[in-house]
Recover the amino acids of this structure.
C-alpha cells in the first residue's frame, strides 16, 4: 500500500531571508585528452562553501558546445564505459556535414578542426546541472560527482559556477 | 512573415519582493521494477502549493546516479516505448567494465550489483528538471508530467524538491 | 602540475540585494517543419535585457513533450547532422506502441498523430536550459546558441523564459 506524501516527505530547508545572495565564479580547466571526464565536484563544493549561501541552488554551466556538464559516479572503469558509449553513439571517424570545410560558410575559425562528433555527443548530454543547497552544502547523493566532459580535443575550458540563494 | 518578439510575447509574471523564499523537501520512493517510470507530478505540485511561493522555480533533483528525472507524457504505451529505447541504447546484458568486480578498486559496496547499463542510460538522461512557477503554480504544459525513472533495481530512492522564489 | 582552484578561478559576480526580482515571459513560435532547430537566443537576450536583472539566472523552458530546448552551435551543416542523428536514434517510421491508436486508452486527442519517435527523441534531450546572468547579460560562451527543437509536426509552440535574480 502506497504511503501518503506526508509520510514520505521531510522538510530539509525552509528560509525567508530579507536578501537574495548571488555569487558567480568562473573556473578554468586545461583538458588533456578526449573524451575526458574531469571531476569538478571539489571545486564546486569549495565555491559554495565560500559563498555563504545557506539555502538555494548552484548551477554548474559549461560555456562550450563541445564540452558538457553531467553528474555520474566517479569509478574509473565506468568512465571507460561512458567514453565507449559516446564514441559508439557518434564516432569521431563517421561522416559529418559540419566537417566538410569546403561547404561551410559560417563560424569558421583559423584553427577549425573536424569536431562534428563532439557536437552530436553534446546534443544528448547537457550544458549544465543544477543542484540544491541545504544548510550551506551541495546536496549531492552518496555516489554523485559532477563532471566536466571534454568531447573535442585538449584545450582551455571555462565553467561558470552560479550560486543563487539566501545567506 | 515573422512576427516581432513584441507580438509573440506575453508577460506572465513580474515580481520584486523584499524577501527570497526557499523550501526544500525530500521525498522517498520505493521503486518496484526497472526501468520504472514513477509519475511524481502530484507530489511536486503539492509541495509547491504548500511552499507559498508565487513566482520563481522548482528544481526536482534525483540524488542517485542510476535513477533519473525527466519530463515526458504519461501514456502507458509510450512508457513501454521509452523503456525499450533505454534497453536498446545500453542493454543490461551487454559487457561493461564497471561490472567486472575482479578489477574494480573503488566504490565497491557489500551489495554491489552489475549496473553498468544503468549508469550508461543515466548519462543521456538527467539528474534534474527545473520548472518555472507562475502565480503559485508549477507551469507545466498540458501533456507534461515529471518522472522519477528507476534504471537499476527496485530500492528506496530520494528526490529533492527545491522551491526558490518570492512569496 | 595542476594549478590550485585559487589560481584558476575568477569571481565574476557577487551580489547581496534587498530584493529578489523575477520576470517570466511566454513566447510563441510557429514551427514549419520537423526536426526544426529554431534559434531563440536573440529573444532570450531581449527579455533578460528588459528584466533589469543584474545577477541570477534565466531558465528557458519548453511546455511541450515533443519540442525540446538545447544549447549548441548554430551552423547550418551541423544542424543537418543533429537532425540526422535524431532520426537515426528514433526513426519516425519505426514501430512505437504509442502509435497504436487501437490500444491507446488515455491522452487521445481529436488530432492525434503518430509521434512516438518525437517523444523518444525528447527523452534524451531536455525540456529546459538554465544559464547564469552576469552584469545583466546572458553568459553564453562564444559559440553557444539556444534552440527550440521541433520534433513532431509544424504547430504553435510556447516557451517560458523565467528570469530569477537581483536588480
Amino acid at each position: 500500500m502506497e504511503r501518503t506524501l506526508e509520510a514520505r516527505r521531510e522538510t530539509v530547508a525552509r528560509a525567508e531571508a530579507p536578501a537574495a545572495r548571488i555569487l558567480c565564479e568562473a573556473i578554468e580547466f586545461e583538458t588533456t585528452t578526449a573524451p575526458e571526464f574531469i571531476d569538478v565536484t571539489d571545486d564546486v563544493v569549495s565555491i559554495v562553501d565560500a559563498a555563504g549561501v545557506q539555502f538555494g541552488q548552484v548551477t554548474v554551466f559549461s560555456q562550450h558546445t563541445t564540452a558538457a556538464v553531467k553528474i555520474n559516479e566517479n569509478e574509473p572503469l565506468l568512465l571507460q564505459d561512458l567514453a565507449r558509449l559516446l564514441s559508439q553513439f557518434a564516432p569521431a571517424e563517421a561522416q559529418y556535414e559540419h566537417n566538410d570545410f569546403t561547404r561551410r560558410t559560417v563560424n569558421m575559425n583559423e584553427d577549425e578542426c573536424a569536431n562534428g562528433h563532439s557536437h552530436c555527443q553534446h546534443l544528448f548530454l547537457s550544458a549544465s546541472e543544477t543542484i540544491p543547497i541545504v544548510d550551506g552544502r551541495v546536496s549531492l547523493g552518496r555516489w554523485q560527482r559532477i563532471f566536466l566532459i571534454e568531447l573535442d580535443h585538449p584545450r582551455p575550458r571555462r565553467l561558470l559556477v552560479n550560486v543563487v540563494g539566501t545567506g
Observations:
- The radius of gyration of chain B is 19 Å.
- The mean pLDDT of chain B is 94.
- The first strand of chain B starts at residue 9 and ends at 17.
